[in-house]
Amino acid sequence: MRKVAFLTLGCKVNQADSGAMEQLFRQAGYLAVDFTEPADVYIINTCVVTDTAEHKSRQLIRRAARQNPNAVIAVTGCYPQIGAEAVKHIKGVDLIVGTDRRREIVSLVEKARQSGCLDAAGALSLDAGFEELPSGNVNTRTRAYLKIQEGCDQYCSYCVIPYARGPSRSRPLESVRTQTSRLVEAGFREIVLIGIHLGAYGAEKPAAGNLCAAVKTALSVDNLERLRLGSIEPTELDFELLSLLKNDRRLCRHLHLPLQSGCDAVLRAMKRPYGTADFQRIVDEVRCCVPDVAITTDIIAGFPGETPAMFAETCAFVEKMAFSRAHIFPFSPRAGTPAADFSGQVGREEKIARTKELARIAKKSEEKFLSGLLGKEREVLFEQAEGETLMTGLTDDYAKAFAPLDNSLLGGIARVLITGLEAGGVTAKLAMTAAKIPTNMRL
Ligand code: SF4
Prior knowledge:
The protein has 443 residues and is of the alpha/beta class. It has 4 domains: 3-120, Methylthiotransferase, N-terminal domain (Rossmann fold, 3-Layer(aba) Sandwich); 127-249, Transcription Regulator spoIIAA (2-Layer Sandwich); 253-371, Transcription Regulator spoIIAA (2-Layer Sandwich); 377-430, CATH 2.40.50.140. The radius of gyration is 22 Å and the shape is globular. Helix 6 runs parallel beside helix 7. Helix 1 (12-27) links the parallel strand 1 (3-8) and strand 2. It has a 6-stranded parallel β-sheet, with helices on both faces. Residues 439-443 have low confidence and may be disordered. The protein has helices spanning 12-27, 51-67, 78-88, 105-115, 161-165, 173-185, 211-219, 239-247, 264-270, 276-289, 308-321, 348-371, and strands at 3-8, 31-33, 41-46, 72-77, 95-97, 118-119, 143-150, 169-170, 190-195, 226-229, 254-256, 294-301, 325-330, 377-386, 390-395, 400-404, 413-422, 425-432. It contains 12 helices and 18 strands. It starts with a strand and ends in an 11-residue tail after the last strand. Iron/sulfur cluster (SF4) binds at residues 152, 154-156, 159, 161-162, 196-197, 233.
């Protein structure tokens, strides 16, 4: 039996793409093994969202080639899509596939085995449509990513993704239904709808339905227990989607709305499609419509031209927004993006200092959010045991819960009472098991 090993860098969409390719190899009779083990084929699914990610991708490609010079080394994902020549010149690479044609990965590997370096990273076009790959998660049986959108047309000034992922394309609604059913039948308790630009779902063919139509389609599947939404651009939330969030207890009360900066001048330089007043209005509307909703975000610290005064504006705005969690990234210039050549690049030490300051502010809001859960009941999807005595899982509003280990509850949804705070989460005790949770009673 031939062995294949995967190593994936980057976002949830890349993780989902790797999971899909792994299923194709399993269906072709391959055994999937850990990347540290000897294998006949190594797939490195790369990321180039930052210089560091690109550097790491190169390191892992070289490591795979050293580990088994006789193996087929296949490089997929964003790196070969925007840097095919550079990847082809890394010693030992036999196949490059960009962010399309993953459906053919098994046959391309077979071809590369015979012919040596094979370049299958072609240009990305709207006409190619959405590449339908099997969905699911090969590592857990509880939560699965369902990729329903690919690509992006927004071209934020710092972002390389539109160049690596091409124009926005969407999974047809009927495929959203069949894949959701398949995942529910396979026993997944939570499905996460993801995309590179999820909120742009259907934008290329408006008549075929927007994100809300895709969410309704997934929710129409029998026995679906939980549906979570991946990152959505704040301007792409609509009232219909918020009403669903308010009224359907299966839809997790968690929205990830990337802010990126809390200063209007920086947002303009980033080419973000909103100002701070718009962002605040949207968040206020969401919180008014769905009171207990958790709002998480992404913020870039040290964008070119960000003065100390602008940074102070961002700190004040982030504090005011009181996110339940925020991921803070120091600006990383990406070759080929406009922002990489902007004047006023902020020094490395200063970027790190600003990242730390924003993380401190965000931590305070996160602790305030978690404290607000004390004494309340929440439904938790318990995913894994933590040591001998504990188990952990996520509430629908994205808090990590620690509870006494009960193997009969692992892999299922149970109602808990939040009893205390724990590093990065909350402690909880069982209030009610899944079977007893009234289906129409939203907490
Ligand atoms: S919306 Fe902006 S940040 Fe997000 S993928 Fe598109 S270009 Fe990048």
